Description:
This protein is α/β, with parallel strands linked by helices. 44% of the residues lie in helices and 14% in strands. The protein contains 15 helices and 13 strands. Strands 3-2-1-4-5-6-7 form a seven-stranded parallel beta sheet, with helices on both faces. A six-stranded parallel beta sheet has the order 10-9-8-11-12-13, with helices on both faces. Helix 2 (50-56) links the parallel strand 2 (39-44) and strand 3 (60-63). Helix 8 (217-224) packs across helix 13. The protein starts with 8 loop residues before the first strand and ends with a helix. Residues 121-125 have low confidence and may be disordered.
Amino acid sequence: MSGKNSALSVVVAGGGTAGHIEPALAVADAVKALAPDTVITALGTARGLETTLVPARGYTLELIPPVPLPRKPTMDLVKLPMRLRASVRKTREVLDAVDADVIVGFGGYVALPAYLAARGGLLRRRRNIPIVIHEANASAGIANKIGARLATRVLAAVPGSGVKNRGAEDADIVGIPVRASIANFDRAGLRSQAREYFGLPQDGPVLLVFGGSQGAASLNDAVSGAAQALADAGISVLHAHGPKNSLVVTQHSASAPYVAVPYLSRMDLAYAAADATICRSGAMTVAEVSAVGLPAVYVPLPHGNGEQELNAKPVVAAGGAMIVSDAELTPAFVAATVVPLLVDAPRLQEMSDGASGLGHRTAATEIARIVLETAERHNTAVSNNTRGNR
């Protein structure tokens, strides 16, 4: 191990949003399961969700300056080189301090500085830490497109994401890593416990609604606006409206309650309680919802480069979901389309079967093996070169 006597040191870079953090933590958990002595360090920023999520999972979080990559010409673009240089410098200090053996990047604000720091980047200092990249979206972001040119291994959730291994070979398709609680999920077995946990009735259909970690006003308005129609059909609702939003819903039925909460800390139980969901279609959300076999109505973000719609299309093609645009998601749509779906048990089962067939429950373990093999192979090569130069 190139003169090292300590355990392997793995750095995961995926801060900013839950869609970047959760895959990183799922792989970190899988690495620890395969090699318990491995030291895991997560890179993040002070303003990201990682400040809460990473410590809660028991990992060390090192903060670096964020480097947003503007999509349009703005003052942020002018400031980009200076910000990137500062972030790379700080990241290099972290990599040196933890004696990193390998970096695993998942895109986002902290990934590009990590990739450049591993290879010397803007500081023009020789470093040779191997990089493993995972692209979760159907359309890759800028950080991973740049990082793929420097990476030892490039992995992707689906074909055609826009990232390739060196030599223009397609990325290795491994799916999206999900946490162990989802990978080993028994939705039917947890149903009773989950419904009791949220105060939902044991019988009757339940609709789960969530718009990501911060909620989504359009989802909130559309579903709460259909509360009467949902209650009349005997459909209970579990709705995470976002910590910064407020949602006051009139209860129309004691036997089919509308349970509104700011945030769901137990997403596993939320999935188990539900018969179908209305949600955004970020890559991590689609991966988890598919892995647990939950029928979905995906509502892609109305801005960005269209990757959320691309994420959902394979599940729709498999019969596990439908897509509705943000503008078309209205109380009338919920009443006319979602309500009939929730009371059609055979159709829900067909959709569940279609969704679960696309779930990649072993992706985290597969990626963890690649990460450990990449680090060990690199360290062996360095050690052999060192001996050969004596």
